[in-house]
Amino acid sequence: MRKRTWKLVCMECRAEYSGTSPRYRCECGGMLDVIHDIHAHRGHLDVKKWNDRRYSHNETDRSGVWRFREIVLPVHYEMVVTRCEGNTNLYGSPRIARFTGMDNILLKHEGENPTGSFKDRGMSAGLTAAKMLGMTQVACASTGNSAAAMASYAATAGMQAIVFVPEGTVAMGKLHQSLAYGARTIQIPCDFDRLLRLVEDACLAGGVYLLNSMNPFRFEGEKTIGYELLQDLGWQVPDWVVVPGGNLGHSAALAKGFRELYDLRLIGRMPRIAVIQAAGANPFYTAFRSRNPVAPLAKVSTFAAAIAVGNPYSWKKSLRGLKDTDGLVEEVSDREILDAKLAVDAAGIGAESASCATVAGIRKLVDSGTIKKGELVCGILTGHLLKDLDTVINYHQGRLGELSAGHVNPLLRAAADTDSILEIIRNVD
Ligand SMILES: *Cc1c(COP(=O)(O)O)cnc(C)c1O
Ligand SMILES: [Zn+2]
Fold first, then answer.
1. CA of 32 to the centre of ligand 2 (A)
2. CA 50 to CA 69: how far, in whole Å?
3. pTM value surpassing 0.90
4. Does ligand 1 come within 6 angstroms of the Cβ of 355?
5. What is 90-114+219-404's CATH number, 3.90.180.10, 2.40.50.40, 3.40.50.300, 3.40.50.1100?
6. Which atom of ligand 1 is nearest to the CA of 144?
7. What is the pLDDT of residues 25-36, one digit of tens each?
8. What is the 31 CA–ligand 2 centroid distance (Å)?
9. Alpha carbon distances (Å) from 5 to 40, 69, 72, 150
10. Which residues, listed in sequence order, are joined to residue 379 by a DSSP beta bridge?
11. Quick one: which atom of ligand 1 is closest to the CA of 118?
12. pLDDT digit string (tens) for 50-99?
């Protein structure tokens, strides 16, 4: 047997667990981290090996998660559940740079993952953990991108996926990917908080592996956004990495990942992480500014659905990461998110609304002088344009209420004759 190079450690009381049986949190209730034996790896890991794997014909090596497997989850090839996730593009757009007030800006488009969001990276690791633990059923309580990713990766692994949703509050349109990928979808008549507790108890008793946001292995997959970003940059460390924050999982994961590379001496300094929240769903922003614990919000209000979270699971891990990277939290209004989305979409890139909080946040931080013009700034676009059809259609039809004020791109109409068509195409601006 190879020597195990990781274990689970409680972030509160430091209790350790082997991770060889399903466990989602510590006996004390604290969240768990996968802690890798950095000393065992130091000197044995080099970026050249990771760079070479990127061009491999083997999809596990080529995966943007598993090419870094030594410090993600060292398992045998057959155990890995992958759709060759990651390998997302890093775009430099002069138009978006101008929009934010920068000379240059780089946007890593995680919407280019197999199911259209970065959740694929976490679920690739989560389903691999499920397989490693011998589980055959996986579950999560989610209405959006997490459920879609879990359903796809469970299908890939040949496992049964179960998605729990609160009855009556979920738009069926948001579940279409889960249904398509074959997940059993169960509605329960209660609110989301109660649903989470019920699902946790039922999964423990029923031997179903739970892939909710507290699952420690998901963080290991999500942190590879940062590894691949550094690879894209030829291992040049950016000054800022800017991300939207909802449950605050991937911001926490990014910071953990950068710390590991720093401790491995593969990077010489840490980038600063900026988390951007919607002003209508900003409990982390409020807590960060006032130096208080997060006080959950009973009601949230933002059209950026993927970050409409009032009670973020992972705020303690994210806060730890911000302290470690000299990071910060900013908030942006729905108007600012929408303006950023219009700019990102019209630049030909396109992204889900929540993703565009990143660009709105960069603009605001440049405006306030927090981000300096010459700095190297990388924003993460978390989800695909196609995740959010309603927002786009409604906006350009002028049906997004007061948010529709501004430049719209309405659907045009010409009569079925050449003159009418010429008349229109000569007048388009
Ligand atoms: C999940 C998600 C977020 C929020 O990420 P957290 O890790 O929960 O903070 C942002 N954008 C998209 C598209 C997402 O799917
Ligand atoms: Zn503990």
1. 8
2. 9
3. yes
4. yes
5. 3.40.50.1100
6. 15
7. 999 999 999 999
8. 7
9. 7, 12, 10, 26
10. 107, 242
11. 15
12. 999 999 999 999 999 999 999 999 999 999 999 999 999 999 999 999 99
